[in-house]
Design goal:
heterodimer, A: 114 residues, mainly beta, 4-stranded antiparallel β-sheet, 11 strands, 59% strand, B: 113 residues, 6-stranded mixed β-sheet
């Protein structure tokens, strides 16, 4: 079974631009979550989508948004990029088992904002 | 807000040594997961523990969930260079769902040959 895929793997943008990242979950997984990982803050939860609906949202500004399509693929968008948005953005799909969400992560998209 | 603190933050030891890393919180979690992340890759799930006092073994790795479900430990026996990586613990709240996962900042482990 193929794992979680993310595109692109690397991205360089300048301040003020916007960016869209893509994630394809494991086949059969309907939940997709997004995380931001930085050396200082670690892994921080952005939001989770399930059946095309945002189910939960972390504590990030409205510049961060996402959506999920009927085939469970998900995109996240960051508008008006800031230097502090430079990070590894990870997507994870999950199969809730016995009430426990086990996350299967993709390799991430490394975003650098100049 | 639930917080998970991992210690030590960095650990560098020689091949063949044993080590233990810790994951502590003042909050109770319904489950605790351990992940390992290598440079340039996403975290990979190692184990999930759900019962207080539970111990799980994965080859040379032993995971324990505290009796009160507030803490966990990962013990590695006879560490090998392939164990090098960032070890993350994540606590899950009851009801499941991604919102229930709180990640620690991780322990950077380096095993020197």
């Amino acid at each position: 079974k193929a794992g979680v895929t993310q595109t692109p793997r690397y991205l360089i943008k300048t301040r003020g631009q916007q960016v869209t990242l893509s994630c394809s979950p494991i086949s059969g997984h309907r939940s997709v979550s997004w995380y931001q990982q930085t050396p200082g803050q670690g892994l921080q939860f952005l939001f989770e989508y399930f059946s095309e609906t945002q189910r939960n949202k972390g504590n990030f500004p409205g510049r961060f948004s996402g959506r999920q399509f009927s085939n469970s693929r998900s995109e996240m968008n960051v508008s008006t990029l800031e230097l502090g948005d430079s990070a590894l953005y990870l997507c994870a799909s999950s199969l809730v088992s016995a009430g426990v969400a086990e996350q299967f992560f993709g390799p991430g998209t490394r975003l650098t904002v100049l | 807000t639930q917080l998970l603190e991992q210690s030590p933050q960095f650990l560098s030891i020689q091949e063949g040594e044993n080590l233990t890393v810790y994951c502590n919180s003042s909050s109770v979690f319904s489950s605790l997961q351990w992940y390992r992340q290598e440079p340039g890759e996403g975290p990979v799930l190692l184990v999930t523990v759900v019962t207080g006092g539970e111990v799980k073994k994965l080859k040379r790795l032993t995971f324990q969930f505290g009796d009160a479900r507030k803490d966990s430990s990962l013990h590695i026996t006879a560490a090998q260079p392939g164990d090098t990586g960032l070890y993350l613990c994540a606590g899950g709240e009851s009801g499941g769902g991604a919102d229930g996962l709180t990640f620690g900042k991780g322990t950077h482990l380096i095993i020197q040959p």
